[in-house]
Amino acid sequence: MEEEAPRFNVLEEAFNGNGNGCANVEATQSAILKVLTRVNRFQMRVRKHIEDNYTEFMPNNTSPDIFLEESGSLNREIHDMLENLGSEGLDALDEANVKMAGNGRQLREILLGLGVSEHVLRIDELFQCVEEAKATKDYLVLLDLVGRLRAFIYGDDSVDGDAQVATPEVRRIFKALECYETIKVKYHVQAYMLQQSLQERFDRLVQLQCKSFPTSRCVTLQVSRDQTQLQDIVQALFQEPYNPARLCEFLLDNCIEPVIMRPVMADYSEEADGGTYVRLSLSYATKEPSSAQLRPNYKQVLENLRLLLHTLAGINCSVSRDQHVFGIIGDHVKDKMLKLLVDECLIPAVPESTEEYQTSTLCEDVAQLEQLLVDSFIINPEQDRALGQFVEKYETYYRNRMYRRVLETAREIIQRDLQDMVLVAPNNHSAEVANDPFLFPRCMISKSAQVSRSLNETIDYALMDSFSPAGLCQTNGPHSSPAHG
User: Can you give the pTM of this predicted structure?
Assistant: First the structure.
């Protein structure tokens, strides 16, 4: 009934006032002029409202709801009038086709102007809603409102499907308005202020501190235990425009890389600041390790990584249908983290002896870590295969390290024996050697050289003996028959 009321306000007087029904062209023109007058007055008031807010920046407390309600009423009246022109006014169109067609175009132009006014008013309404949401610090609502503002201003329907209220013609005219640039600036100011407010709030809930000393560093991570507030802020902050590079750089340079490369002392507490925060402190030397002996045990490395993930677990919430916060962080850190983990921690931890190999649980530990990273959404098991490939090549790594260790041990023995000297031909004095050139002179040689010469002589004798007739008979054995010899 409410939608029918405007129709009878104007149409009844215009079309039925002279008793001629819809055949009276003059009555139709009169109705159009009345609507046009009302629309012009309405647009003048809307223009003043917009200029006060976006051109002159004058204080204006008028609510856009009043204008939107009046705009809707005028829209309904004009649509009813167009409908009557199309269905009941055929006779009138026959009498004055050109004039009535012009009236129809005029009505459509009025509708287009109303559409532009309504579009600007809805943007103004969203700006007022933003101010109200800022007062209540409802960041998820703020984020939604800013997204809707972007959709209305830039015509980005992918941001908000409901923003399709504006036709291409309305958007084209809207972008040509004087207030368009001012509205864009105001939107960017609101978006920037929202981003800054979210970042400040996030920094209070997730505190990352790093204190450097001449030879050491202490890194402290504190995460609020207020999961509701924390996840609201994180969900609002970690949207597509947000760049987490600063957070990822801090975690990689001050936490992940030192945990893998250096001995780290970790202190974890779930009752920090009166039980309101979870805290993890990492202390380590900043001087480059000069020996492999300073390399941390791989079990301690994996345990510290688990502590780091457990401390930050509060921020790992879903920010979209198929993405989590750890997934966003993982995109920035996982490649370097996995490479360091395999090259600097896991491969050096492969056992070098059979005894170590039989008692090692390295493969099982790596598989558990990989599953933890998958469950935390840091890595994709189908794409990030570094840990899985390490487990697959574990046997090869083990053999290579064992053979390398055998060679190193042999080289050490040889180098040590080179220092041990033995006397050769102790009875061949210089005078005797001078008279007999076939005598080897008395001298000192390394024990390794003597062993090598003795080994060569033994091999030569063995070869000569194996090719002699007696050697062949002995090879065949005393029970060998001529038929099988």
Answer: 0.66
